[in-house]
Each structure stands twice: as C-alpha cells, then as structure tokens.
Amino acid sequence: MAQPPPTPPTDDDRPLAGVRVIDLTQYEAGPSATQILAWLGADVIKIEPPGGEPSRHLLGGTAQRDSIVFVLFNQSKRSVTLDLGLEPDRQRLRGLLRTADVLAENFSPGTLARLGLPIDELRRELPGLIVASVRGYGPNGPWSEFKSLDFVAQAVGGAMSVTGTSDGPPTRLGVTIADSGTGLHLAVGILAALFRRTRTGRGGRVEVALQDAVVNLMRNAMAPTYLSGLAAARTGSAYVTAVPSDLYPCHPGGPNDYLYILLASKQHWEALLHAIGRAELLDDPRFARQTARNERPEETRAVVRAWTQRHDKLEAMRLLSARGVPCGAVLDTAELLANQQLRACGMIVDHTHPHWGTIAVPACPIRIDGFEPRMEPAPAAGQHTDEVLRASTGEGRRDG
What we know:
Layout: E1 20-23, H1 29-39, E2 43-48, H2 68-73, E3 78-81, H3 87-97, E4 102-105, H4 111-114, H5 119-125, E5 130-135, H6 150-156, H7 177-200, E6 204-209, H8 210-217, H9 223-228, E7 246-249, E8 258-261, H10 266-275, H11 290-295, H12 297-308, H13 313-322, E9 327-329, H14 333-338, H15 340-344, E10 348-353, E11 357-362, H16 385-393
Parallel strand pairs: 1-2, 1-4, 2-3, 4-5, 5-6
Antiparallel strand pairs: 7-8, 8-9, 10-11
C-alpha cells in the first residue's frame, strides 16, 4: 500500500476539512472521539457490519428507528457496511485506508489482527496513517488484556471511591465520564498526531485507556491523599473545607429543586450574607473565619438553607449570581434541553432526524471563530456504501 498523501490545503473554513477518518468504533468511547472530528469538518466514514453498529439497537432502538444513543454520537458521519469476516470486504477496507488519514477503533485487543488487519502491518504499509485506539487498560501491566466499560472504568479509575456519602457505598456517576472522557482524550491525541504529521510526514499510534482517562480526571480529587497520606473520603455534595459550600433545597421541594453554592473566598461569603439578608453575621465570631465555619458546618449551612427554601432554584441562582456568588441550579435532563442559556449560545439546538423528527440535541461544545460545526443527521446503516466505494475503488454495492 502507498502512504496516504498529506492532507491537501483547502479554502474550506472547516478546521478539519480534507481529513478522512475510517471509523471502526462502536457504542460511546470511540464514537464520541470521531463525533468531535466530524463536527469539526473531518470526513468520518463509519464502517459497520451488515445490520448496523450495535448501539443502533440500544435505548429506543428498533428495526424501524435507530436508538437515540446512536443518533447523538454519530452526527455528520457517513456509513459504509462491510462484513469484515469476508476477505473481499477486508480488501475493500484496506482500499479505503489508502485514502485515509486516521483509522479509529475500539475493539478488544487482538481483534484487528484476527480480521487480517494487524496494526503493526498497517503502519508499515501506510506510514502516514494514524491509528487511534481505545483500550480498557494501558498496554503494559497485569490488566492490559482485561475488558472494560464505562462503569468498570469509573471503579478502577477511582471516581466511584470519591462519589457518594460518607456513610454509604461508592457510587457511580450518572454521566459516562469514562467513555466520553476517553473520547475527548482520544480526539486530542488524534489532532496532535495530525499536527506532528504536517512536520514529519509520519503517522503513528494513538492510544487512550478508559482507566487512564478517569485517573487524569481524578487529579483534583487526589489532593487530600497528598496532604494526609490517606484515601480521599466521600463527602456527598459538601465541600468540607469551604463550608457552607454545598447543595441546598429550594422551593417547592421537587426531586431536583436544589441550588449548589460554592464559595472560594472571603468575598464570596460576604456577598452571600448580603444577598440573603444576613449581613449582621459578618462580624459574628462563629462565622467570621473559614476555620470557624468549618468547625460548625450544620449551623452555618442552616443559615443558607433557611433562605434557599423560600425561593425556587432559578430565582435563587439569579439573586445570588447578581451579587457575585458562584452558584448553580440543579437542572434535570428535560430542563437542559429547554434551557435558555444553552439555547442562546447554540449548545442545545433543534435537529431533524429522519426517524426521530425534530428533536433538541446537544451540539458541538467547541467554538471556533468563522466556523459553524456540522450537524448533519446520523446516517442510516450503509447509507453511503455506494458513493464511498465508488469514489475510492470504482465499485458500488455488492450483492449478498
């Protein structure tokens, strides 16, 4: 195989115009990385088995409608169906790789080799190709061959150990930080490898492990261990060294009627007391210093709680924020999709999909001047097989 040509110059305002990604990833960790590249203008060609990638059949997925998980992680990509158990289709994939800048995959270790596409061989034949892989664990060590998924990675990466209350068990986060966190790290690695290739002409290997990505997100949570030598404790929502930083109930008392207040300075505490009408406590020795407040957390929080319970969470957020107090209403998933702030800045947009109709979806969180991220619908399985194969090899759809 010949080395892929360098990405040609273009007047296109898409940051990744001219970059082609062959996407063998599935579910979330890998697709979240290639989703970012597609949003930023790369031509991401998703290779799927006949019948489609497995995440098409997750939550809400049927034979007539792809799952919302697939729809959210595969916008602006093209889909080609290949049966990689068959040698002709493996050769078609090799043909596509000759035109590609990046191959992304999150198979179990050894799967590509079993498909007749060993990574070392690909790198020899295509020295300009960047091979980007998601793994459960790093390539060395006793766990390197173990399988992992998001919640497993939250456990072995430490996130569960610091989530929950002191009298309860470790708790998984409600968001998939391991999968999408790994995807973000992988996208950064791919971009760095592409940048290096512009200088050297050399492709290379990019790997991110789920465990490693979570550990990288744990650096702040590790701080108590450096100070005490002990494992960091679970403290629920409270920030125990900055009382009264915590979660506070608001009116009318629904399951998500809460406001989080985080105080990082003496000025924040003073602004909070003025905002809640308790300025007389500014000189009260029980509360005047942070150490004093930390010694009587329940008494200090009660002062704040008495005020928040009389206000709804958005009004409380507005009133405190107007005084310069860092705080935020707890928004549930339905509120996020309708949130005026997210709508105004283009983070939540109305998006039309052939199966789901017009729905509100999260958009690309990266803003680059002069560029509007791509928001094309996630493709149907095999939707672009003919056009992609015809353009790259001169052949169209195969029978059978």
